[in-house]
Fold this sequence. Notes:
The protein is of the alpha/beta class. Helices cover 27% and strands 28% of the residues.
Amino acid sequence: MTGIAVLQMTAGIDPAANADTLAQAIAQAGAGGAAMLFTPEMSGLIDRDRARAAARLVGEDEDPVLARVRAAAAEHRIWVHLGSLAIRRDDGRLANRAYVIDDAGTIRARYDKMHLFDVDLPSGESWRESAAYAAGEQAVVVDTPIGRLGLAICYDLRFPALFAALSEAGATILSVPAAFTRPTGDAHWHVLLRARAIEAGVHLVAAAQTGEHEDGRATYGHSLVVGPWGEVLLDMGEPAGLGLVTIDTSAVTAVRERLPTIRHRRAIGPVARA
C-alpha cells in the first residue's frame, strides 16, 4: 500500500502566488507521508490574456515555478508530478509540458501534451490551444516509487491509442492532469477516466483545476484517483485543496490476471469496406 497526494487548485495569473500554493502542498503532502504529489495542468499560470501572460512565459531554465517546485521536492523528500507548465521553447512557441521530479529535486521526465484542444462549445466558449502551443510528439513513461508512470495531459484523455501505448510500455499508473471546462467535465470527465483505467488495468490519477479563475474562465474540478477495476478511490468534488489516498499497487497485477486485455490486443489493419 502506498500513499499519494493530489492537489486541486484554482491557479491564477500570478506565477509567484501559484508557486506558493504548490510549495505549501508539497510540504503538506510530505508531512502526510505521501510518496508522490500530483498537481493539475497549468499549475504555474492560467491567463487567457495572451499579451499579459507573454511576459511571464519563459524557458525551462528560467521558469520560477519549476525552480520552486524542484527545491520544495528536495526539501520535503517527496516525488512530484508537476501536471504541466506553459514553457517557451527555443523556437518561440510554447509547450504544455509536464514534469516528473524526484525527491532530490531532479527532473526525471518531461512530456509535452500531444493533442491540442481546439473547439467551439455550445456555451459560447472558444478554445484554440494550437494558436500558441506546439504539439508534443513522444509518449513518455518513467519509473517512480509508485510504479511505472505513463504521462498524459487533459485533452489527451479522449485518445485511447495513447493510453494503450503507455500500458504496452509497462505503465502501471497513469496521470491525466487537467483544466477541464465545466460543460465537458460534467458530461465526460468521470466516464472517460474510468474507461481509460479499466482498458489499461492501471491506477489513474487526475489532478484538476477547479472553480472561477482570475482570467474569467471556470474549470470543473473533481480530481479523481481511479483503481484498475474502474473504482473511484478519490473524488475531490469542487473545493480546492489537497487529497490524500492510499493505493494498493498489487491490485494492478491482480486485475490484469483476471482480465488480460493488454495481452489480447491485436494490431488493427486497414478497415474493409463492405
